[in-house]
Every structure is written in structure tokens, then in C-alpha cells.
């Protein structure tokens, strides 16, 4: 089997894993076993990566699909006394909410997924990823406690995301945050973030089709899952939805016994000036409105006793200066983000559903105008309908479509934070080839190009016959070819330059001669994160 990087994780004698059932207070007093004392951040990340492929955990997931309550029962004991102030929603909404409440002077915790460059980005305090030392310290506290108690709890460890969720709760408790904003992982009802019995407020942003094998194959089934974060007597908010999911959310709210309010348009809020958002894209306006309602409700409930009941429109109000400032200052890398490096401008958006891709295309068409060479860099993972997303991108009239797997660079020292052990390299490259063929068909080039999987030195590079579509073995090789030495950040002599056949370089004449190059990087947040690792070196520190 072709390997572009070595597996860095070394267990150093560690045995199989166990469920987490201990309280955070007990974890904080746990001393690391002697053999773990000298382990650093990368050791922690490598050990965490082994949880991606734990056979026991995978079998447990299969069992829980038939009995989803097992998942909640396994974790509820650990956090039933946590009492954190949680808002559950989606990434951009959570980012707006956290920034607003931080502007009021509160010490905030923020848990999100996935990470872009380093895993510690998922756990933030006061808007910043926790430091490597803190991550390492708390990681081994949790890990060692599980190692000590595994015999009493079935001998299996929580899988990757569940472990990080437990770790986030533990860190927020130990670091004494005033509030924690949690982004749900997948769905809601049976997601491992959904274990706080009485959060302060809950929110659901605009719904789309995703994770259909877990959540269901219709928007109504997905809405039912999302509504599972509602809690009795806890106010809930959502944005304007289509009739089907709107009715399902209303029924869920009535069944669970909570209020559900629909957020007004952002234009309805009373402000002397139009509200400016730190995140680009028209779809962020509904996320911002939801964030205003979530933060406003948290402030009301935190300082006052406010009753919420029924299903009703959420009232517009006059945002405070802290709210206005929070919306304007919100940053959320990899979502409608623009980076200009000399003649090359990168548009990065982790859209990975048809709905989010529609918003991405609208954003791209508004910004990519004039005499420029347009390049698409695309990849998608999981069960995503790549053909549907690529079809939406056709009107952008790209001069080149480039495909690559979510491998940051094809060397053995590839960052452990961005390794995925669940999919083989062959499968990733095969998917890229399938995406390339889909793109050709969508653009009227139906003949299938001959592809060679290996070039000199053992690195795969495929599809050289047609200049408009190429597949590269990693993100760095794709970016280097697209930029043609015109991006000084990518021209760093310390970066490995992957050899490319002369015939492939000949296709890039248009890129070398262009006054400006616009590159849209989309289809996967993991792809965007891998690109940012190279395009924004500050994220590596």
C-alpha cells in the first residue's frame, strides 16, 4: 500500500482503552504515570490519533446506532455536576456569540470542530486556542485516569471526538471559565456534546443535508436530530427555515417543553448604523442574528429571571456597543476568508454541503471579477455528494480545476495534528480522480483521461493530458503548482518542492503570465486547514 507519510503515533507500552466515567475534579488530582512524564504535545496528539481507528470504539458506535441512549449514559455521569453555561449551535454562530460575550468581560470557553491546523484550536479560552503546555497537561490527566480505571469499565476508550469533548469540559472546569459555547458535532440528539441537562440557551442555525447515514436522508429527519438539543424550560432559537424542518422543530420544542423563537432579519435590529460583520458572506447575517439572540438571552438569564414559553418570533432589539463591536471583530478562519499574497489571492471556505456551497459560490462570484486567472482547488470527504457541489461551482468559470487529498505534504514529518488514519491514501487519491472526472463531465469534456498513478521518486501525479484539470498528491504540491513561484510564502526554501514533469509545468504558462490569480479552496474544512498551514505560517505557532 502506497504511503506518503509514516504513522507517527507510538504508544510506548500503552494498552487498550476504557470509557470515561470519572468527574473532572478527580481527574485534576490524577498524577501522570512515570512513563508519561516526559511526553510533549506531539506525543499527546499522536496518542489521540490512535483513537481514530480503535476497533472497540467502532463496534461500540455500531451498537449505539441501534440504542443511541447508550452514548449519553456512558458520558452523563462524568459531567452531571458540571453546570456549564452552554449555547449549542454551528461554528460561525458560536464564534459571533463567543466574541460578543467576551466583549462584556467574561472569561469564555469555546469548543468547536474540526480544527484547521492544530487540534488545540478546538478548545479555546478567551478566543485563543489553549497553549500546547495546557493541552498536554490536561490530555494526560484524562488519559492516565482512563488507563488506571479501564478494567472496571469494559476496556474501551471513547473515540476521537468523544475524548476531545470530555477533555474540553475538563479544561473549562479547571480553567474556571464564566461560560462555555459548544458547537454540536453531528446532529444533536445523540451527539456527545448533548449531555448538559440544563444549558442556559440553545440555538439551531440554517439546516442542510449532511451526514445522512447518521442523521437521516431528508431535511425533516435531520431537523428532528437537531432539535434533540432542546431542553425542558430552556429557551431555544433558530433562524428562518423552510416549512418542513420548521414544523419538525416546533413539534420537538412542544414535545420537550421549551420555547422556540425564530430570529428576525439582521436589518430589523435597531442600530444607528448598519451592523458590520467580521465574517464575509450574506449567509452570515442569519448567523449573526442568531448570535445576538443567544448572547442577549444568556445575559438576561444570567443576571435576571426571565420566563420563556411557546413558539414565537424573537423580538428585535437595540444591540449594545459590546454586541456591535463583537459582530464586527469576529474572526473564524477558513470560512469565507481571503488571503492576498502578492498577485495570488486565496479565497478559503470550508463549505462541504450543497447549501453551504451555494453560499460559497455567491461569495466567490461577487469577489472574483475582472481579468484574472481563476483556479479551483477542491476536495471532499465522507459521504458528501461531490458531484452536486461541483455542479454548483461550474458557473464560476474556472480556468483550472485542481484536486488533491487532505494530506498537507507528502513527507514523513507531516504534522500529526492533521493526520487521518481512517482512510487509506489510495482511497483518497481515487476520490480525487473521481472528482476530476465529474468536473470534466460537468464541463462537457466526457472522455476519461488516461491517468498514471506514479511519477519519478514514487510520488503520484495524475491526469496530465488536459490542461484544465489536474490531481496532485498533497496540498503543498497543488499550491506550489498553482502559484508558480509567485507566492513568497510558498517559496520558502525550507519547504519541500515536489518534482513535476515538464509537460505538467507547460500547462501553467497562463498562471505564470497572469497579472492576478484567484484561487478558491473549498469542499472540506480539512482541505482548507491544510492549505492554511502553508499559507498562514502563524497558525503553526
Automatic annotation (TrEMBL):
<dbReference type="InterPro" id="IPR018109">
    <property type="entry name" value="Folylpolyglutamate_synth_CS"/>
</dbReference>
<comment type="function">
    <text>Catalyzes conversion of folates to polyglutamate derivatives allowing concentration of folate compounds in the cell and the intracellular retention of these cofactors, which are important substrates for most of the folate-dependent enzymes that are involved in one-carbon transfer reactions involved in purine, pyrimidine and amino acid synthesis.</text>
</comment>
<comment type="pathway">
    <text>Cofactor biosynthesis; tetrahydrofolylpolyglutamate biosynthesis.</text>
</comment>
<feature type="binding site">
    <location>
        <position position="349"/>
    </location>
    <ligand>
        <name>ATP</name>
    </ligand>
</feature>
<keyword id="KW-0479">Metal-binding</keyword>
<keyword id="KW-0436">Ligase</keyword>
<feature type="binding site">
    <location>
        <position position="211"/>
    </location>
    <ligand>
        <name>Mg(2+)</name>
    </ligand>
</feature>
<comment type="similarity">
    <text>Belongs to the folylpolyglutamate synthase family.</text>
</comment>
<dbReference type="InterPro" id="IPR036565">
    <property type="entry name" value="Mur-like_cat_sf"/>
</dbReference>
<dbReference type="GO" id="GO:0005524">
    <property type="term" value="F:ATP binding"/>
</dbReference>
<keyword id="KW-0460">Magnesium</keyword>
<protein>
    <recommendedName>
        <fullName>Folylpolyglutamate synthase</fullName>
        <ecNumber>6.3.2.17</ecNumber>
    </recommendedName>
</protein>
<keyword id="KW-0554">One-carbon metabolism</keyword>
<dbReference type="InterPro" id="IPR001645">
    <property type="entry name" value="Folylpolyglutamate_synth"/>
</dbReference>
<dbReference type="GO" id="GO:0046872">
    <property type="term" value="F:metal ion binding"/>
</dbReference>
<dbReference type="InterPro" id="IPR023600">
    <property type="entry name" value="Folylpolyglutamate_synth_euk"/>
</dbReference>
<feature type="binding site">
    <location>
        <position position="335"/>
    </location>
    <ligand>
        <name>ATP</name>
    </ligand>
</feature>
<dbReference type="GO" id="GO:0005829">
    <property type="term" value="C:cytosol"/>
</dbReference>
<keyword id="KW-0547">Nucleotide-binding</keyword>
<dbReference type="InterPro" id="IPR036615">
    <property type="entry name" value="Mur_ligase_C_dom_sf"/>
</dbReference>
<keyword id="KW-0472">Membrane</keyword>
<feature type="binding site">
    <location>
        <position position="113"/>
    </location>
    <ligand>
        <name>Mg(2+)</name>
    </ligand>
</feature>
<dbReference type="GO" id="GO:0004326">
    <property type="term" value="F:tetrahydrofolylpolyglutamate synthase activity"/>
</dbReference>
<keyword id="KW-0999">Mitochondrion inner membrane</keyword>
<feature type="binding site">
    <location>
        <position position="183"/>
    </location>
    <ligand>
        <name>Mg(2+)</name>
    </ligand>
</feature>
<dbReference type="GO" id="GO:0005759">
    <property type="term" value="C:mitochondrial matrix"/>
</dbReference>
<keyword id="KW-0067">ATP-binding</keyword>
<dbReference type="GO" id="GO:0005743">
    <property type="term" value="C:mitochondrial inner membrane"/>
</dbReference>
<keyword id="KW-0963">Cytoplasm</keyword>
<keyword id="KW-0496">Mitochondrion</keyword>
<dbReference type="GO" id="GO:0006730">
    <property type="term" value="P:one-carbon metabolic process"/>
</dbReference>
Amino acid at each position: 500500500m502506497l504511503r506518503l507519510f509514516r504513522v507517527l503515533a507510538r504508544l510506548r507500552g500503552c494498552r487498550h482503552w476504557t470509557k470515561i466515567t470519572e468527574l473532572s475534579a478527580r481527574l485534576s488530582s490524577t498524577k501522570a504515570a512515570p512513563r508519561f512524564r516526559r511526553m510533549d504535545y506531539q506525543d499527546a496528539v499522536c496518542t489521540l490519533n490512535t483513537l481514530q481507528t480503535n476497533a472497540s470504539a467502532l463496534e461500540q458506535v455500531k451498537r449505539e446506532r441501534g440504542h443511541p441512549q447508550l452514548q449519553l449514559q456512558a458520558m452523563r455521569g462524568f459531567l452531571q455536576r458540571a453546570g456549564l453555561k452552554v449555547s449549542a449551535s454551528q461554528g460561525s454562530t458560536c464564534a459571533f456569540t463567543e466574541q460578543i460575550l467576551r466583549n462584556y468581560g467574561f472569561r469564555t470557553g469555546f469548543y468547536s470542530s474540526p480544527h484547521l491546523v492544530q487540534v488545540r484550536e478546538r478548545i479555546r479560552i478567551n478566543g485563543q486556542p489553549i497553549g500546547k503546555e495546557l493541552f498536554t497537561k490536561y490530555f494526560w490527566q484524562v488519559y492516565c485516569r482512563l488507563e488506571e480505571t479501564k478494567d472496571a469499565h469494559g476496556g474501551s476508550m471513547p473515540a476521537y471526538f468523544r475524548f476531545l469533548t470530555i477533555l474540553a469540559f475538563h479544561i473549562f472546569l479547571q480553567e474556571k471559565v464564566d461560560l462555555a459555547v459548544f458547537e454540536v458535532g453531528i446532529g444533536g440528539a445523540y451527539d456527545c456534546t448533548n449531555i448538559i441537562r440544563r444549558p442556559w440557551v440553545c440555538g439551531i442555525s440554517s439546516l442542510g443535508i449532511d451526514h445522512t447515514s447518521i442523521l437521516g436522508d431528508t431535511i425533516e429527519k435531520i431537523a428532528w436530530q437537531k432539535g434533540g438539543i432542546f431542553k425542558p424550560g430552556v429557551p431555544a432559537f433558530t433562524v428562518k427555515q423552510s416549512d418542513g424542518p420548521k414544523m419538525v422543530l416546533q413539534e420537538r420544542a412542544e414535545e420537550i417543553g421549551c420555547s422556540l423563537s425564530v430570529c428576525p432579519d439582521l436589518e430589523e435590529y435597531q442600530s444607528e448604523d448598519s451592523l458590520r460583520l467580521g465574517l464575509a458572506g450574506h449567509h452570515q447575517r442569519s448567523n449573526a442574528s442568531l448570535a445576538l439572540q443567544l448572547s442577549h438571552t444568556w445575559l438576561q438569564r444570567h443576571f435576571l429571571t426571565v420566563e420563556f414559553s411557546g413558539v414565537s418570533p424573537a423580538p428585535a432589539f437595540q444591540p449594545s456597543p459590546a454586541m456591535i463591536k463583537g459582530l464586527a471583530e469576529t474572526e473564524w478562519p477558513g470560512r469565507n476568508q481571503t488571503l492576498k499574497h502578492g498577485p495570488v489571492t486565496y479565497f478559503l471556505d470550508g463549505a462541504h454541503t450543497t447549501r453551504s456551497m451555494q453560499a460559497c459560490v455567491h461569495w466567490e462570484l461577487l469577489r472574483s471579477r475582472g481579468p484574472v486567472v481563476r483556479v479551483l482547488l477542491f476536495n471532499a470527504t465522507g459521504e458528501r455528494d461531490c458531484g452536486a457541489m461541483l455542479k454548483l461551482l461550474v458557473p464560476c468559470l474556472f480556468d483550472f480545476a485542481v484536486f488533491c487529498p487532505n494530506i498537507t505534504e507528502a513527507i514523513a514529518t507531516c504534522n500529526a495534528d492533521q493526520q487521518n488514519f481512517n482512510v487509506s491514501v489510495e482511497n483518497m487519491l481515487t476520490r480525487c480522480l473521481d472528482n476530476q472526472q465529474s468536473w470534466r463531465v460537468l464541463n462537457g469534456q466526457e472522455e476519461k483521461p488516461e491517468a498514471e498513478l506514479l511519477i519519478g521518486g514514487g510520488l503520484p501525479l495524475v491526469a496530465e493530458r488536459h490542461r484544465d484539470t489536474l490531481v496532485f498528491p498533497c496540498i503543498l504540491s497543488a499550491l506550489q503548482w498553482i502559484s508558480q513561484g509567485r507566492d513568497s510564502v510558498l517559496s520558502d526554501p525550507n519547504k519541500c518542492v515536489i518534482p513535476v514533469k515538464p509537460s505538467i509545468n507547460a500547462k501553467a504558462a497562463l498562471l505564470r503570465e497572469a497579472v492576478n490569480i484567484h484561487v478558491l479552496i473549498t469542499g472540506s474544512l480539512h482541505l482548507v486547514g491544510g492549505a492554511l498551514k502553508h499559507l498562514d505560517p502563524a497558525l503553526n505557532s
